[in-house]
Amino acid sequence: MSEYKRVDGRAYDEIRPVKAEVRVLKNADGSAIFELGNTKVIAAVYGPRELHSKHMASSYESLVRVRYHMVPFSTKDRKSQPFTRREIEISKVLKEALSASIRRELFPRSTIDIYIEVLNADGSTRVASLNAASLALADAGVFMYDLIAAVSVGKINGQLVVDLNEYEDQNSDSDIPIAFMPSLNKVVLLQMDGTMSLEEIRQALKMAKNAADKIYQVEKDCLKGSLESVLKVYGLL
Amino acid sequence: MSEYKRVDGRAYDEIRPVKAEVRVLKNADGSAIFELGNTKVIAAVYGPRELHSKHMASSYESLVRVRYHMVPFSTKDRKSQPFTRREIEISKVLKEALSASIRRELFPRSTIDIYIEVLNADGSTRVASLNAASLALADAGVFMYDLIAAVSVGKINGQLVVDLNEYEDQNSDSDIPIAFMPSLNKVVLLQMDGTMSLEEIRQALKMAKNAADKIYQVEKDCLKGSLESVLKVYGLL
Amino acid sequence: MSEYKRVDGRAYDEIRPVKAEVRVLKNADGSAIFELGNTKVIAAVYGPRELHSKHMASSYESLVRVRYHMVPFSTKDRKSQPFTRREIEISKVLKEALSASIRRELFPRSTIDIYIEVLNADGSTRVASLNAASLALADAGVFMYDLIAAVSVGKINGQLVVDLNEYEDQNSDSDIPIAFMPSLNKVVLLQMDGTMSLEEIRQALKMAKNAADKIYQVEKDCLKGSLESVLKVYGLL
Amino acid sequence: MDNIKYNVLIPKIRQKFILNTLKENKRIDNRSFYEYRALKIRYGHLPNADGSAEVSLGNTIVLAGVKVDITNPFPSEPDKGIIIVNAEFPPVASPDFEPGPPDENAIELARIVDRGLRKPEIVDLSSLCIVPGQKVYRIWIDIYALNHDGNMIDAAGIAAVVALMNTKYKKFTFVQDKGLVDTGEKAQLTLKNFPVYVTHVKIGDHILLDPVLEEESLADCKITTIVSEGNLITGIQKSGVGGISLDELEKIMQNSINLYQTIKENIQKEVSKNG
Amino acid sequence: MDNIKYNVLIPKIRQKFILNTLKENKRIDNRSFYEYRALKIRYGHLPNADGSAEVSLGNTIVLAGVKVDITNPFPSEPDKGIIIVNAEFPPVASPDFEPGPPDENAIELARIVDRGLRKPEIVDLSSLCIVPGQKVYRIWIDIYALNHDGNMIDAAGIAAVVALMNTKYKKFTFVQDKGLVDTGEKAQLTLKNFPVYVTHVKIGDHILLDPVLEEESLADCKITTIVSEGNLITGIQKSGVGGISLDELEKIMQNSINLYQTIKENIQKEVSKNG
Amino acid sequence: MDNIKYNVLIPKIRQKFILNTLKENKRIDNRSFYEYRALKIRYGHLPNADGSAEVSLGNTIVLAGVKVDITNPFPSEPDKGIIIVNAEFPPVASPDFEPGPPDENAIELARIVDRGLRKPEIVDLSSLCIVPGQKVYRIWIDIYALNHDGNMIDAAGIAAVVALMNTKYKKFTFVQDKGLVDTGEKAQLTLKNFPVYVTHVKIGDHILLDPVLEEESLADCKITTIVSEGNLITGIQKSGVGGISLDELEKIMQNSINLYQTIKENIQKEVSKNG
């Protein structure tokens, strides 16, 4: 093990300060903000709703569509392209992860649209997006098998660390974004780039699972807080 | 008041020579050329006709679509972009102005398509376009509340002038394109940029109304001439 | 007549080595590779099949669609544009030539899609494409009036030559791609650029017809070979 | 020619209710005709943006982000910086917005916001020149709708102005043989005036300030007046398919000028409160 | 793969009528088989274009505009100017044309017009070089359909040639240390030949010159022959889904050559008349 | 957001058949669970490409072409060449593919192939620098599907690596006052490792290697593990809408490492055989 120090002084297994809040946009059926330090993401859910183009609809489950997008001023250099190949690939893997968590068979012939905007990007945006989107789905009352808790883990100077920020992401030897349905012990998103041995990946996934469990708790607390404030409005709490 | 002299020697309240002619294109249901000096515009109306995409149609009124477009060789420097943001905004405000003049409730489930091509741009193209389009609508026999008469007014060197040409448009302190339904005393298009006091705007709108009344007369004469030539064909005049 | 020598030593009326093979792609209803020297083309036919957008379908004949496309690495300089104006024009004239050969009235309300990929371009790609596509149509069992046999003919240094390669195409005075339905004595594609007298064109077309007849024979042999190998599978030959 | 629906369809019975309420000189959210909705402003909260502001006007939320980079000046104005305003109505903001390039409504909004900044030259463009004819700063203002409940123009105008006010950018200097060199310092934009975008709608004979989405969708037309310090009007845009009389226009412009100080102070109060 | 309809659908009964008329050696507009429609030409009437022409061939109206600017030459031809031909079939010209980028018909037309100008080098491209390898004139020819009633190619060809004939452009010269300098003079393009685009259609066994839209839509195929001074053929394009025999092709090419002088003089007469 | 169908719809009765077959530890094409399909490789057969390879994996056929040109380096890496991977799923390859720009499946595939080449730096990018900060070689890898019968990633990975292995490009050198000069020699790319893309699918409790299209369409999820010499994992991608346990992942990664030598030797055998 090297003596790598993290730029922001965190312990290797320490995630950045998390902020989670639901019901932040009035028009959406569900919405959430999720922040990991300076990584700030907002997600809105519209649906389940009817599809305009019927021929895409499925008669036995809901179609899930996901658009992961970074606003032009969210990055160090202004992002000038409206929709990059990176955004298209990430939209696809987020769609597959979120689809795995939704009880789609309950909403046939409908679509669930999940729109994610990265407002400020400081690394780990795709996992922050999954957390925001999963909270927004819960806020919209969409039935799910479990909440998704996602986190990144990587290797820098031979050291495994969780929740990489932009600097660490740029300078890492390898990087693994991963998402769990924690109660079901299922992985719903997994990507990796860089170079690692199988043993290192094993350890990394263990660290990731621990960090994801913490995020899972934050998410549950956030939803509980939201529910309580609704109940208070109706004088039920 | 300054001693500003207009580049083309016109009086402050003088519009450029106007040429108006309808029924210039055989395929269109209605068409017109409208010229203000070297600003030359052609408009074609197709409709009321059935819409291909039914879901856009309205069951209680006609959908009006307007495409304002400058041909590539109409401007000082060749216009290379097929459709600019400026053209999109102008298409929108022209659509709204023309919609206000059409008795749309008489043509439910239909569309009226108005295509405008600026062939040579020497300032005031959007108001010339409105005049051309309104004549083309009349030529197509579309029922209207009133013809539209449109003109520009602006301030240069502190002096208010009507019907700005390209040079004046580029060098003006402010610029107001405005369109009237003269018999109804209604403004259907109004934009302004630059800086003016409320009192100056008041005066400018008064000048604009007078100039628009002259254009209104030209339009009515043009349509009368067109009608007479049709009646002559049938031996009725 | 000049003493022009062809760069690859061929006689003026000599076509390059031809390779033709059908049934090369499993998913397509019909497919073929056609090579003229280093010009290598692959064609796939899907259909007759139902059209998604019904409003384009015709109730008395099949719609034929053709996409002629060059892969990015098929040309000397990498082709960066996905679909050039040249490819659009060629797709159109190939579509018209192939349509002329198909008994479209036998497949109303359907579409026949013909996809052509130029894998390596060494001149005469459009005529090679027609030969590939016509073989692929035969392989798909689409009823035709006749196979198409296509070839190019051109003038270099005053000399008429057949089957121009890329170098000859770049350096020719004029260039004529032409396609025949040989048994019917019909021309289904003809283009020409450069400068020629009528007498020269007459001679050129004669040379083209002779060369096309050779290609026609290759095509028929190829299809016969394919049929025989099928019959062998079933023990019928 | 129009892929995003800016307005909503309102059922006939709801239309009647809204119009009846107006006849009693009331609005559906109990405001008076010339009353603004509650204004909330956050700014400078997005560290990757050089300037940023999030403005809530009732339930309408608009985000503006500023990025500054360096480019060549336009040949016609070799010693002036460049400002570009873009706007997007992304599908997060409304069930009727669809993914895709900005439609006519978003483009119109961007061009109206631009109009209030360009000809009156709110940003001192000459101060944005580094090497005349060669290198100038370019100010990108990106406006991003987050929740659409009417009157996006006024919210966007405030967001753009506040984002510009808190914009800090890397100061470069030109050094012979070295080219552009980062001085390590940050410069701040200076605004020469304080434009306020004031939008009224006309519904029948009623003139209403700061419409909610239902009011906007029902309106005959909508008039945005841009007002700057000194009782000056620095831009107007009429939109919507209805006509309006010169008298009504006069009333709206006069009212916009009258409201200027109040709205401006309201903005400044919010700015001094948050950040 | 085909978004604009160039041809129209003709009802069966109308088809029969047209075919029967042809059997009696007549055309629906009473022309003989090898007769051109009335030709009208205006040119130089659009001051912002460096050259312009509006050509009417019966009810078909096509506009061509020329703009000249300065650019870098292609590396393969460092001392030659550049010609670019574009064509658009905008929705003004036909109820079947739709807004959008040029479709296959417009692109084909532009490339046919281009073919008649490029390889025979009608415009002297060497005269368009300012600084070899560095700066050359670029000639943009934009063809714009205004009313589509068949045979747009011939009308477009005439419009392009006449617009080029009246093109005047600012003459620049290269001055050491100063770069390109406007001489204040205007130069005129010189054309090295006079190409004429001659289009026939084949309907059954009939060969017709200058088809109207109904004839074109009914035709088995359409052959455009480009003819230049000296009985030379400088381009051919067959289009349409039918086949044609070598004998018929021979007849069409021969006829195109025969017609060359008449059409050319007709164009020149119109040009000398108007302007 | 998804215009091309990568997977096919499988009738319920066929699904049942496939699942029942799996229960008997068999696959529909009689392979064992960890058995690759027959591999065929042609390469260097397209003379205009600087490197090329056509890979058949059963009925799946993928073509990769390499073109090398010269460009400016990225400012962040001034002394390194550039690699760009594109992929297209053209309509020749499947009745469900449509013409148009690459969809999410083609983009994902290109980015996975890229992942296996980029961070482990399979191609020595420093050797691709001609003038630091000014001129470097750019390697375009274009992947083109010809017939889609499942597991396009592994086939594309092999095609890309083999095409790179046989890439020869014109060697340029920088000469003072002359700029880049063609040396007349050809250089060959050197690869620093030999990545192998290994794809498994999970169907229920079964883990299968190298799925055919029907298996892939039925799968809960698909895991691609990129393995390089030295038992190193240099990339992972999970796709598909189902979840997977950490134990199953472990099994798949272990299996991928175990298979590495066999697959690599299989590729090398094919390469030495053909060309």
List keywords for this structure.
heterohexamer; A: 237 residues; alpha+beta; Ribosomal Protein S5, domain 2; five-stranded mixed sheet; four-stranded antiparallel sheet; D: 275 residues; six-stranded mixed sheet; 5 helices; 12 strands; 27% helix; elongated
Integer-rounded radius of gyration of chain D: 20 Å
Please, what is the CATH homologous superfamily of chain D?
A: GHMP Kinase, N-terminal domain
Q: The CATH topology of chain D, please?
A: Ribosomal Protein S5, domain 2
Strand order of the largest sheet of chain A: 1-2-3-5-4
Q: Profile the largest sheet of chain D.
A: 6 strands, mixed
Question: What order do the SSEs of chain A take from the amino end to the carboxyl end, as H and E?
Answer: EEEEHEHEEHEEH
What is the helix/strand order of chain D? HEEEEHEEHEEEEHEEH
Gist?
The complex is a heterohexamer, with three copies of chain A (237 residues) and three copies of chain D (275 residues). Chain A has helices at 85-101, 125-139, 166-171, 198-233; strands at 18-22, 30-36, 39-50, 63-70, 110-120, 149-156, 159-162, 174-181, 186-197.
Describe what you observe in this structure.
The complex is a heterohexamer, with three copies of chain A (237 residues) and three copies of chain D (275 residues). Chain A is an alpha+beta fold and 237 residues long. In chain A, strand 1 (18-22) and strand 2 form a beta hairpin. The model of chain A has no long low-confidence stretch (mean pLDDT 94). The termini of chain A are far apart. In chain A, the strands form two sheets. A five-stranded mixed sheet of chain A has the order 1-2-3-5-4. A four-stranded antiparallel sheet of chain A has the order 7-6-8-9. Chain A has helices spanning 85-101, 125-139, 166-171, 198-233; strands at 18-22, 30-36, 39-50, 63-70, 110-120, 149-156, 159-162, 174-181, 186-197. Helix content of chain A is 31%, strand content 32%. Chain A has a single domain, classed as GHMP Kinase, N-terminal domain (Ribosomal Protein S5, domain 2), CATH 3.30.230. In chain D, strand 7 and strand 8 (179-188) form a beta hairpin. Chain D has a single domain (12-273), classed as 2-Layer Sandwich (Ribosomal Protein S5, domain 2), CATH 3.30.230.70. Chain D is built from five helices and twelve strands. Chain D has 275 residues and is α+β, with helices and mostly antiparallel strands. The longest helix of chain D has 28 residues, at 246-273. In chain D, strands 1, 2, 3, 4, 5 and 6 form a six-stranded mixed sheet that branches. Chain D has a four-stranded antiparallel sheet with strand order 10-9-11-12, sandwiched between helices. Classes of the chains: A alpha+beta (237), D alpha+beta (275). Chains in contact: A-D, A-F, B-D, B-E, C-E, C-F. At the A-F interface, strand 4, helix 1, strand 8, strand 9 and helix 4 of A face helix 2, strand 11, strand 12 and helix 5 of F.
